[in-house]
Amino acid sequence: MPVDLHVHTNASDGQYLPEEVVARARLQGLSAIAITDHDTTDGIPAAQKAAAVSFPPFEQPRIIPGIELSAEETVFDDGKGRETAVDVHMLGYFINIKAPEFQNALSRFRDDRLMRAQAILRKLDALGMPLDWKRLLEIAQGGAVGRPHIARALAESGYVENVPQAFELYLRNGGPAYVARERLSPEGAVSLIHQAGGAAVLAHPGYIHHYSDLVARLISAGLDGVEIWHPGNNEHVRANLKVLAQRYNLIATGGSDYHGEAVKPAIRLGFFTAPEGAIEALQSQAHFYRSLNDSQ
C-alpha cells in the first residue's frame, strides 16, 4: 500500500488536526504517513494515538515520527558577486522526539518564528494591511504562527485573492513584508537530525537551483536520502535525482507535502508517495544513528 512521507498538521502550518490527518490518510488508502511539521513534533503523539484508537490493528496507518527543519545558505547570483539567501529544507525520519537537546533546539526555532511573525505583521501594518494577532492564533489552532497562516489571514481580510498571491506579492523571500530569521546551515540540519537518532533527507530539491552541487556537498555531512517524488520536482529534476541517488547510494523518498486545501489547494494527501522499501531503509539508517548516539 502507498506511503506519504511528507505530511503537515496544524501543529505547524497545516490546516488539519493530527487526528483529522490520520483519518484522511486512511480514507486515501495510505498504509503509512510521516508527520513532518516545521520545527515541532507536537503533532506526532496525537496522530499516533488517533491511529491506535480509531482503527482495528490491521487497518491502522503507520505514523512515522518526522520533522522538517528550515536551513539556509548564501550563494552568489549569476557570477555577478551578489549574495542570495537560498532556503534549504531537511526532513528527518524516525527521530527520537523525546531527545532533550533536540527539543531545546526546536523550542529556540519556534521562539524565533514567533518573533518573525510579529515583525511581519508590523511590516504589513506599515503597508496599510493590519491583521489581528488573535485571529492569527485562531488560524494556527495552537500551532506556531508562520507565513502560511499570515497568508491565509491576508486572503481572509480581502487584501489578496488567495494564499499563493499573498506570498507572491508580500511574503516571498525578498518581498516587501518578508522578514529573515535565524537558520541552520544544511550541514547543521543534517547533524541535528542525526543527533536525534533520525535519517536526514533533502526535501523538494526542485526548489533549489543548485541541488546537484548541494547533494554532492552534503554527502560528507552524512546525508541519507533525497526526496525525488514531490510536487516541486518536475520530470527532469526527478530523473537527475535518481542518478544522484544511485551515484551516492542515497535513499529515494517521496511525499505530497500535504498541508490541507486551504493552504495548498492543488496538493492532495497521497498525491506523491515513496517507493517500496523507503521506510525500511530510513528506519535502518535511523537505527544506526541511535546505536551510534548510545555508544558515545
Brief sketch in words of this structure:
This protein has helices spanning 18-27, 43-54, 100-126, 133-140, 147-156, 163-171, 186-195, 211-218, 235-248, 278-295, and strands at 3-7, 32-35, 62-77, 82-93, 199-202, 225-229, 251-254.
Describe this structure in words.
- The chain is of the alpha/beta class and 296 residues long.
- Strands 1-2-3-4-5-6-7 form a seven-stranded mixed β-sheet.
- The protein has helices spanning 18-27, 43-54, 100-126, 133-140, 147-156, 163-171, 186-195, 211-218, 235-248, 278-295, and strands at residues 3-7, 32-35, 62-77, 82-93, 199-202, 225-229, 251-254.
- α4 crosses α5 (147-156).
- It has a single domain (3-295), classed as Metal-dependent hydrolases (TIM Barrel, Alpha-Beta Barrel), CATH 3.20.20.140.
- The chain contains ten helices and seven strands.
